[in-house]
Sequence to fold (191 residues):
Amino acid sequence: MMAAILAGGASRRFGGGEKGLAQFKGKPMVAWALDAVHGVGSVVIIANRPELYTGFGHPVYSDSVKGMGPLSGLHAAFHHTGADQIFLLACDMPQASSAMVEFVLSIAKKSSGDAVIPYADGREQGLFAVYRKSAIDRHRDAIHSASIQFDQFRNSINKTLIPEEELRQVEPGLESFVNVNSKMDLTRLEK
Fold:
């Protein structure tokens, strides 16, 4: 198992700047994500500007096929690592806990599908999930032509959804899934 931290979005809603490097409680958001996955095994960072992330002690890669949002990052992680399974985590979830990561991984070990995805706050948490290379392989043509987006990809794969009730047994407030989309979100979360 490997982990891939997505740190390379366009940051349009964030209002400029490199979102992964924005400070949260005294350290960059990407550092919080790295802390959450420290027990997974090998870790890579996927970023549009790899040079900004080389100081974090992990290999950094950019998207091989651009234009598909998080799916470009997931594809790049599989492409550059050759892994069979990847735990994918967005850097803008700075409260991601290692306990929740371990719980999702424990479900993934028992699953034979293409993905294991938490279902919280009324939606799939596709950027805090485990994916198999088989899902990417089946969509190779659509990915290489950049004619598929992350939601379409997730809707078309064989996945196990982890119900919110089970997630709340690990983390009653589901803090791991709080996403920072703007600088205002970040300020609010710090308080």
User: Anything to note?
Assistant: DSSP finds eight helices and ten strands in the chain.
